[in-house]
Amino acid sequence: MVLIKKLVRRFDAYQQSHSAAAFVIGVAKKYVEDRGPSLAALLAYYGVLSLFPLLLVLFTALGLLFSHDPSFRNRVIHSALSQFPVVGKQLDGHDAISQLRAKGLGLAVGLVGLFWGSLGVTKAGQRAMADVWNVPQLNRPRFARRIGRGFEFLGVLVLDVVVSTALAGLVTFGGHALWLQAIAVVVGIIINVALFLLGFRILTPNSIATKTLVSGAAIAALSWNILQYLGTWLVGHELRHASQLYGYFGSILGLVSFLFIAAEVTLIAAEINVVKARHLYPRSLTPPFTSADEAVLTALARQSQRFVAETVNVHFEDETDDVTRESPKELDTTPWSEPTQ
Q1: What's the CA angle centered on 52, arms 31 and 250, to 5 degrees?
Q2: CA–CA gap between residue 109 and residue 50 (Å, rounded)
Q3: Residue 323 three-state SS
Q4: Is 204 contained in some domain?
Q5: One domain for residues 118 and 210
Q6: Structure confidence at residue 176 as a pLDDT band (50, 70, 90)
Q7: Whether residue 208 is found in the same domain as residue 295
Q8: Is the pLDDT of residue 171 over 60?
């Protein structure tokens, strides 16, 4: 145990004296302190609930509106399914598309499921961003505003499908020219960064400046593209020769894992924004606390404030001389909060 403590202290001293290592440790510690894995699991849960009703409604609407243009309909469906390569390969076919069309009661159930799951995703996303930025409960958006932001975020998802379809059409129009495909990839990455930035802006409290969201949006967009390529590779190499039953089970498990990892990567990207904007590093792995530790712990405590009459005071004790000191005023989280609505 003594040897382990010495190694930890040496590593702690090293990372605190090197900015890159201190930044990585700062992001990792804050992600854990903000209960990032639990937030990611909640996002993945609602993602699964909303995905299949979304596909049901999408396939049905396209079948009704574009029955005269099957080429365009199939291109839109392929673009939507390409966002989720693990399950998309199982559904990307004429038989699967025709079987997922619904009428009457089935369509109504799909719409209700889509509404419930999609709003669940948006509410979970708003909660996650508010927790990441440690916004006090008192200053978070009220119910009506959260619903409005939810529909705004759904609009971003629809825009993503439209843009993906347009890019796919551009590549198809240009044939197999490598230069055109390269341009489409670069343009797709740039558009994904813009869409992630727009999504972060919608889900994040208004008091947070948009410029502080750019770095995380870029990282999240690049990570999303990498996850899509890995998912496509996994389906092509691991599930291609699987039996039908194993393939279905593997697809469902793969979808849940894909959504959970995507949610984790997105939240870590958001944490990068916070740590960078507030300079919440270096963090200490062993006592005593650094100023960044005190800032994060102060924000976590004040995050629980629910009423105007409630006051949250934070104190820290100096372990060397047992002196109790109040958290410095510059660590107050009030300026980071969204005004009461």
Answers
A1: 70
A2: 12
A3: strand
A4: yes
A5: yes
A6: low
A7: no
A8: no
Q: Domain range spanning residue 295?
A: 2-24+283-336
Shared domain for 143 and 62, answered yes or no, is: yes
Residues 107 and 189 in one domain: yes
Tokens 């995507």 label which residue?
Answer: 262
Decide: 117 and 53 in contact? Cβ < 8 Å: yes
Confirm whether 123 is domain-assigned: yes
The pLDDT of residue 117 is 75
For residue 99, pLDDT over 70 is answered with: no
Tell me the sheet residues that pair with 317: 324
Helix (H, G, I), strand (E, B) or coil at 1: coil
Q: Of the residues 236, 254, 278, which one is the last residue of a structural domain? A: 278
Section 273-282 average pLDDT: 95
pLDDT digits (tens, 9 = 90+) for 43-89: 998 888 877 777 777 777 776 777 777 776 676 666 666 666 666 55
| 203 and 107 co-located in one domain | yes
82 and 11 in a common domain: no
Q: Taking CA 116 as the corner, what is the angle to CA 110 and CA 117, rounded to the nearest 5 degrees?
A: 85
| Burial bucket for residue 246 (CB in 10 Å: 0-12, 13-18, 19+) | exposed
On whether residue 29 sits in a domain, the answer given is: no
Q: Tell me how many domains the chain contains.
A: 2
Strand segments (E) across 96-142: none
The structure tokens 């799951």 sit at 117
Q: CA-based Rg of the chain, rounded to a whole angstrom?
A: 23
* Residue 339 confidence (pLDDT) above 50: no
Residue 214, pLDDT > 70, answer: yes
For the chain, the average pLDDT equals 78
What pLDDT, on a 0 to 100 scale, did the predictor assign at position 153? 84
**Same domain as 327, residue 181:** no
- Please state the three-class secondary structure of 241-290 as a single string: CCCHHHHHHHHHHHHHHHHHHHHHHHHHHHHHHHHHHHCCCCCCCCCCCC
Kindly tell me if the per-residue pLDDT of 237 is higher than 70. no
> At which of 263, 278, 293 does a domain end?
278
Q: What are phi and psi of 325, to 5 degrees?
A: -130, 145
30, part of any domain: no
